[in-house]
Amino acid sequence: MASWNFGNLGASCNKETKLVEEVLECVGVDFSIINESQTGFISEEYRPKFEGSIKNKVKNLLYIYDIVNDLFDDNVFLYYSWEYGNSISDYYNRHEEIYNPITKKIIIVDCEYCYGEQEIFGKNVYKVLKKQIEDEAKKQNISVKWDSNLFPSTDEFADFCDEFIDSLGGLPDLGKKIEEKDIPSNKEVNKTLIKKIADTAGKNGLLELVNAIKEKYGVTPKTIKRKKKLTEAELIKKIKEKPIFLRRLDNDIRNNKEFLLKLIKEDILGFKLEYAGEELRNDKEVVLEAIKRNADSLQYASDKLKMKKKKSLQLKRIVVMYCNMLVKNFEMIKK
User: Fold this and answer.
1) 202 phi and psi, to 5 degrees?
2) I need a labelling partner for 1 at 20 to 30 A (CA). Which of 150, 208, 270, 291 fits?
3) Is the pLDDT reported for residue 30 higher than 90?
4) Residues 62, 68, 70, 76: is their CA dihedral positive or negative?
5) Is the pLDDT of residue 187 over 50?
6) Residue 285 and residue 56: Cα distance in Å, rounded?
C-alpha cells in the first residue's frame, strides 16, 4: 500500500451546528471534501459529528480555538492528521488536537511508531526499554542476547521481548504521548486573521458571528450582507446542489411542518430528523415519516417519543412471546 496522509477538522456539538460550520468555513474548512476518515480510532466522547478538510491547518488552528472559546459553550473541536507508510515498513503517525470549551483546554495526542523498524517516535523500542527488558529477562532466567544494532539475536529472547512489549501495550501505546495546554491568550491572536474572518462573516451575512467577533476583539467587517429570504423552490434547489445547506436552515423553516414533511416524503437527499427543529422532533407524524426513510432519524427524536417507541417495542415483544407460548401449549394438548 502506498503511503498516504491527510488532515481533517471536525466538531461535535448539540446546539450550534449551523454557526460552528460557518465559523469553520470562514477559516478555510471545506465540508465538501473529507479526507479518508479514521474516526473509528477516536473515542466516542470526541468523535466529530461533521468534518471537513482544512488548509494551512497548523497555522490557523490555535486561532480557531481562541475564537470559539467565547462563542460556543457545548462544542468539542477536533483536528486530526494521519500518515501511514507502505505495507513493508508499516509506519504510522497520528496527531490530534481536541479542544473543549467547557474546560477551555486543548488535549494534544501524538502517536508515532513503525512495526517494520520496531521504532517509537523514531527511536529503537528495544533501546528505549533496554534496562527494563534485561531486568525482567534475568528474573525469568532468559539469556539476554543483542545483536550489534540492538535487536534480540535469539528466537527465545526475541519471543520474550515481543511478549514484554505487548504487556506494556505494544507499539501503539508505547509510541503515544498526551499533553494538555491552555488556548493562546488574546495577546497572541493574529488580528489580521480575525479581520479576515470578520470580513468573510459580514460578506456572508453571518450576523451572530459578526457581533461575537466585534464584542470580543473590537473588529468589524467592511460590509455586512443582509440575508434575503429564499422561496421554497429556491431552498429545495440549494439543498439539492449542496446537501450541507440542510444544516443551515433557519429555525422558522426547521419548525415548518409542511416543508419538512415535503423534504422527507420526496426523499430529498435522505433527509434526517437531525435537521428538524425541536418542536418537530417531538411531532409523531414527522418522526415516523423520517424513520421510514432513514432509520438513523430515531436518535434525533425527542426523548419523550423515543421512550414511547421503546415501550411500544417492549409491548410487542411481550405479545409475541405470549402468542408463542399459547401455540406451544396448544400443540402439547393436541398430542
Assistant:
1) -65, -45
2) 150
3) no
4) negative
5) yes
6) 46
User: Of 47, 242, 277, which Cα lies nearest the Cα of 290?
Assistant: 277
Residue 154's CB: how many other CB atoms inside 10 A?
A: 14
Question: Residue 329, exposed/middle/buried by CB under 10 A (0-12, 13-18, 19+)?
Answer: exposed
Pair 158, 152: CB distance under 8 Å: yes
176: which DSSP letter? E
Indicate yes or no: pTM above 0.70.
no
Model confidence pLDDT, tens digit, residues 109-131: 899 999 888 999 989 999 999 99
The candidate with the shortest Cα–Cα distance to 227, out of 245, 246, 202, 252, is 202
Q: Count other Cβ atoms within 10 Å, centred on residue 42.
A: 19
Residue pLDDT, tens place only, 67-108: 776 667 677 888 888 877 665 568 888 888 888 877 888 888
Domain borders along the chain are 4-116+175-189, 130-167, 228-301
